[in-house]
Design goal:
The structure is a single chain. It contains seven helices and two strands, in the order E-E-H-H-H-H-H-H-H. The chain is mostly helical. It folds into two domains: about 40 residues; about 100 residues, no CATH class. The longest helix has 19 residues.
């Protein structure tokens, strides 16, 4: 690679980093580094958050393992007295959640993935309904991160059982999930 001035370096405007294939001017170097610095600044200020929302999920999607974990969640919450989640409709709820999942932005899909993967990481699918409900109760009573996970799991379980609004003025009351 050769470095030098184009046209014999007659003026500062002709100053260039030159190689046999192409040249790049100082102005181009400064412009490109400015774009990189701008992108890093945007990320540091949190402006990159919306970009994260549209980046693809982990690629697994609502696969069989996550579906089975979700069916186990519905079964566990449906076994709790006063729960408005119907354990006998767990397969239907999983199908409805899969439809909802496929229409969500990747950021929302990742949130669903995180809840189901956290449950699956405990061996949730292999537990009986009583042990599953006990685990969710323990999470709800523990530190903030686990309590948040328990709330998100309950919300995820209630989602298919929440009625759709029939009109613009229709007020939908959320389905309560009791642990």
């Amino acid at each position: 690679m050769k470095y030098g001035r184009r046209n014999g370096g007659a003026s500062a405007r002709d100053d260039v980093l030159w190689n046999a294939d192409d040249g790049i001017t100082r102005r181009q170097v400064l412009a490109r580094s400015g774009l990189a610095l701008g992108a890093l600044s945007a990320a540091a200020l949190g402006v990159a958050g919306p970009v994260w929302a549209v980046l693809p999920s982990d690629g697994r999607g609502f696969d069989d393992a996550r579906r089975e974990t979700y069916v186990a969640l519905i079964s566990a919450l449906g076994s709790v007295p006063d729960a408005r989640v119907d354990a006998s409709r767990a397969s239907w709820a999983a199908t409805r959640l899969a439809d909802h999942y496929s229409q969500q932005l990747p950021d929302a899909q990742r949130a669903t993935d995180d809840v189901l993967d956290a449950l699956d990481g405990t061996g949730f699918r292999q537990m009986n309904d009583g042990d599953r409900a006990a685990l969710l109760r323990a999470w709800a009573r523990s530190g903030r991160a686990d309590a948040d996970a328990a709330v998100r799991a309950g919300g995820l379980a209630a989602l298919p059982f929440t009625p759709e609004p029939e009109g613009e003025d229709d007020v939908i009351k959320p389905v309560a999930v009791v642990l």
